[in-house]
Amino acid sequence: MTDDPFNDELTEDDEAHLAAFLSDPGLWEEPSMEDEDAIVAAIRAEAALFPRPEREDVAELPANVIPISRARRWLAPVAVGIAAALVVLAGFAFVTAGDDDPEGVVLALEGTDIAPDATAEAVVAPLQAGTRIVLDVSGLPPADPGTYYEAWMRVDAEIGVSAGTFHLRGGDATIELWSGVTPTDYPLITVTVQSEAQPESSGVVVLKGLLDPSDFGG
Amino acid sequence: MDDLIARFRAGDETAVRAIHQRYAGAVRTVARSMMSDPELVSEVVQQTFIKAWRAIDSFDEGRDFAPWLYSIARRTAIDVLRTEKRPTTGDHEPETDVAVTSISFERTWEIYEVRQAIDALPGEEREVVRLSHLMGLTHPEIAERLGIPVGTVKSRSGRANKRLHVALQHLQRPANQRGVSFVQGDEEQ
Questions:
Q1: Model ipTM over 0.85
Q2: Chain A residue numbers touching B92 (CB-CB < 8 A)
Q3: Statement: the pTM of the whole predicted model exceeds 0.95
Q4: Strands, DSSP E only, in chain A?
Q5: How far is A197 from chain B (nearest CA, A)?
Q6: What whole-number distance in Å separates Cα of residue A64 and Cα of residue A57?
Q7: Of A64, A117, A176, B31, whose CB is crowded by the most CB atoms within 10 A?
Q8: Per-residue DSSP letters for B37-60?
Q9: CA-based nearest residue in chain A for residue B12
Q10: Which residue among B32, B50, B133 places its CB closest to the CB of A22?
């Protein structure tokens, strides 16, 4: 190409260089409608579940938050799972033990599309050392080799703190979990399937429940 | 564009699709230049747009959207490749036929820009360029394939070359460095 943008002539070298690009099949691959649908589904589900604040209200994220990581091949199932969670969210049965129950607040978690038979009851108790969650899980299959389950306390889809991991390879179980954040600030409880090769949140949610911060004085 | 970005930020489906349709080709081409597995390419494309949506509040609307998205795409592709090169317990084979750092930022940016320039061509000109360069057809063969006069093929080809020339003007090397390439041969080792 020449320096003069109004000069229509290409030098032979530049023409050859451009031709090398243009003969690469990768340059001509068409975008995938499946990709587009998966992107739309994932964004729609996340936007509906966690509406964005007005731009002027956006605050900086706390330093200790863990963003949901790459959804990898689970992207489509995640979108479906989140969408399913939207459907069941309205039907969550919150069972509050009340202020006089020393065990804490009881929350029913429901399985997403990924684990429709799974249910769990979480007893959430803010204590001096952090928040204790006693999770009684049923109907969730044992984690496959190379994978495990991880519980999270979250603000929304992007901001969350781990509460611990488990595998259920011994069958249904009661699991004691701890997290260093409060249920008032992190009221969303989720359980994800994790790969041992990927320590960040996979975003693949199998159980989900939402606490009422007012139960904790929030 | 500002309105489109605002609607994209809000998760408006039409805006998400519009952004995808405008930039997916370029993002895909960058991913494709760095990896061969179609599933990984799709993964990069999907993650790029979802990450862009999540991070849209960090985008300065006074700037061009394309370079901002490009940086997300390239970083995402590198992350995907790095993960693929780790021992995996998943049900897929690691991607082993490409090097994570074998292609430079400038090189992939050039690829991204060329793809954007191609996508900006009118359809009839784009098709002539595709048949000529990708399929290796001569002007008479293109004319026969498209059922149009050879002169029309030549004029479309000429107009396409001019548009590409103008669109890619900023990528060209200084005149005293010509004869090699724009940025060809500067791959990281």
A1: no
A2: 73
A3: no
A4: 94-95, 105-111, 119-127, 130-138, 147-154, 160-166, 173-179, 188-195, 205-210
A5: 6
A6: 20
A7: B31
A8: -HHHHHHHHHHHHHHHHHTGGGS-
A9: A44
A10: B133
